[in-house]
Amino acid sequence: MVVKTMLHEVQTMAKQLIPQPLQDKILSGIGRLLGDPSSQMTLVIDEYNGYAMNQIYEASEIYLQTKISPAVSRLRVSRAPREKNLLVTINKGEKVIDVFEGIQLKWEMVSSTEKQLVMGGDKGERRSIELSFLKKNMEKVLSSYLPYVVERSELIKEENKVVKLYSLGNFQGGAIVGGGAWGSINLDHPSTFETLAMDLKLKEDLIKDLDRFVRRRKFYKRVGKAWKRGYLLYGPPGTGKTSLIAAMANYLKFDVYDLELTSLQRNSQLRKLLVSTKNRSILVIEDIDCSTELQDRQAGRYNQTTTQLTLSGLLNFIDGLWSSCGDERIIVFTTNHKDRIDPALLRPGRMDMHIHMSYCTPYGFKTLASNYLGVSNHRMFTEIERLITEVEVTPAEIAEELMKSEEADVALEGLIEFLKRAKIAENKSNCRGKKVDEQGTERQDVVQSEKVVEAKRQKIRSGELETCDFMPCAYSFL
Fold it and tell me: Which ranges carry the AAA+ ATPase domain (predicted)?
């Protein structure tokens, strides 16, 4: 009763003499001093919402980087390799005070170790952020303040956007370790569409397709399709498939998730990993043809006691019900042998655009010469372009030759010699292959003739054919 009387008197005086914003601060302080926790509300924002990253947590973490004050005593400082700026974040246990439209709010970083709903059920660090304020401000916090935090964080991310490369760095023994399966580093790959040594028309078509994809959010919703796009990059090793993926990521400013199917054992693990990826990202599954077990499993030739990762499980995420768990996502498959991929993966809706990364072309050579030597024209270009059309060499092989000297004349002369040697080696290989083919064809003719002779002998024995009818054929064969 004494506490209530004191609060009532303070409120009456405050309304007459003190502005409303200052009233809220004073009353909040008095309430804490007098042990009146009932006036406070605390929102707990966990890092993960089930298997997916909590976007409010991510936004709050970014927003709080701009609210660090001298009152904070412990900070976390880090810097990625080749990055200029330091990343300063609030350490666990620290509190930050923010004011929004006259409302005072208190943020606190919380971390604990406890069992979570993760693969294998292992313990991991559970991180969360707590937001406390007066209960009467609940509606404004939920309808205005938190949307403001999210919007502000998006602007900060856009200003400081760094493309990330995610891999299964925290994935060990079939369990998520440290609160999340994906570990990340900055993707510092310098590849761009301007530096790619690929066919000009194909490059232009791909850029148009990417631009069309990112601006069609309403279109995908209207036609009832998940907002995703699938690409298959196929061709010999060294033709630039990895560089193309990096160029796509740098062009769109999309993070990249590198998924190794050989690290997984069950479809449930695959689902949890894929659902935990962020929107506006590229999921990469390299050398899909080497995942032979996926193909064997579809045919039933696998031991279900040791593994349950199936082709159908992968397909279910690519274009099944699980494909709708996220927006603006790109899936890229790579292979050196397109003919080895299960046809179920190749159809539209799974691999929408097939991109052939071919051997080096004259246009690709000019791009490489400009990148490595800084020359766009040279007297040796004509001979080099002629040789490139006559021999199969990859952009990686051309680049390796151009790197042998910083002087254009020396590097290009060395490239000509390399192409001539490659042409001679290719001709010898073709000759050997032709000889083997001719021998094989000749042997097939002999076998076929023997079959004809044996068939006629059978007819003679059965009386269907006279001996005189058979003799000319027999003599001609001998």
Answer: 227-361
196 neighbors 203 (Cβ within 8 angstroms): yes
DSSP secondary structure string for all residues of 250-298: HHHT-EEEE--GGG--BHHHHHHHHHTSPSSEEEEE--GGG-HHHHHHH
Percent helix, strand and coil across the chain, each to the nearest 5: 50, 20, 30
DSSP state of 440: H
Instruction: Say which residues have a Cβ less than 8 Å from residue 228's Cβ, sequence separation at least 6.
Output: 323, 326, 328, 329, 330, 331
Q: What is the pLDDT of residue 240?
A: 93
Classify residue 391 by its DSSP letter.
S
> CA angle 54-59-65, nearest 5°?
135
Q: For 327-346, how does the pLDDT look when each residue is reduced to its tens digit (9 = 90+)?
A: 889 999 999 999 888 888 88
Beta strand pairing call for 48-49 and 164-167: unpaired
Handedness of CA 18, 21, 23, 26 (dihedral sign): negative
The CA-based dihedral angle spanning residues 394, 395, 398, 404, taken in that order and rounded to the nearest 10 degrees: -130
> Phi-psi region for residue 170, left (φ > 0), alpha (ψ -120 to 50) or beta?
alpha
pLDDT in tens, 102-113: 999 999 988 775
pLDDT tens digit sequence for 29-83: 655 554 455 688 999 999 887 767 788 998 998 898 888 888 788 888 877 666 6
Q: Is the pTM of this model over 0.85?
A: no
Q: Name the percent of the chain lying above pLDDT 90.
A: 40
Query: CA angle 296-308-327, nearest 5°?
Result: 100
